[in-house]
From TrEMBL:
Residues making up the signal peptide according to the UniProt record: none
Location (main, coarse): membrane
Matches recorded under InterPro entries: MetI-like (IPR000515), MetI-like_sf (IPR035906)
Membrane topology listed for this record: Multi-pass membrane protein
Transmembrane segments: 6-32, 73-94, 106-126, 138-155, 186-207, 259-278
Keyword entries, A-Z: Cell membrane, Membrane, Transmembrane, Transmembrane helix, Transport
Family stated for the protein in its record: Belongs to the binding-protein-dependent transport system permease family.
Descriptive protein name: Aldouronate transport system permease protein
Matches recorded under Pfam families: BPD_transp_1
Origin species: Paenibacillus xylanexedens
Domain of life: Bacteria
Limits of the ABC transmembrane type-1 domain: 71-267
Amino acid sequence: MYSNRIYQMAVHLVLIMMGIAAVFPFILLISASLTEEQAIIRDGYRLLPAQFSFDAYVYLFNQYSLILRSYGITTFITVVGTIIGLLITTLVAYPLSRNVLPFRSFLSFFVFFTLLFNGGLVPMYLVYTDLFHLKDTIWSLIIPNLLTNGFYILLMRSFFSTSIPGEVVESAYVDGANEWVIYCKIVLPLALPSLATIGLMLMISYWNDWFNGLIFINDGSLYSIQNLLNRMLSDVQYLQQNSLSGQTAVVSSVPLGSVRMAIAVIGVLPLIATYPFFQKFFAKGLTIGAVKG
């Protein structure tokens, strides 16, 4: 009994230390974004700001209309991309989990093959711009990520194969249900834990995506929040490196160090704010799914 309590205390201590290690960088990030620029240069980054300053956030929110529009675009591609991604993932994974599917092994290998090899950046760019004409469209921020879900498909297929009882599917057949009814009313409700996990990963990948916007978007009105903040940071760096003598005082007043940190905070804060609500759904999904009789 005593040894068991020691073990539990050790596990709790390790988990607490891991939690602190995970939270500490974000606290440092917020602190640096609220620190006066000269204090960062003089004292470096600290856990608590040496001199409080909101200059970085004032600089960013002077362009609030651009930021709000980019937030809207990012929210749209995240919601739509996650929903479509989950739909495609389950529609491909469920048939692959059924033993009655013809060429099941070949199709599974084809999905796995996409994890090992791809056509490269140039062919991808040519396909989406010259063949599908997606350049400077909102869909160029959604569709490319939909075609890189091989890992999620295999993960979901494994869940369907191991966690969906065959007796449930067979009883549904006996009751006269077709494949669509089984998929919509039996398989998806039982797969809520896996859907919540994959949905969270898709949501994070869409929210943090900046590469597709970099290569497919030239229209500033279609910038996601990551692309906009990256562009703002690049503009500040360019001005500091190439400013004329008369502009040096103005450009040097821009708090570049704290602006970097404020950009990171603005980019990640919505995910942190919405994650607890998603976590509730995820925890609820863990309690659903069992053979009832």
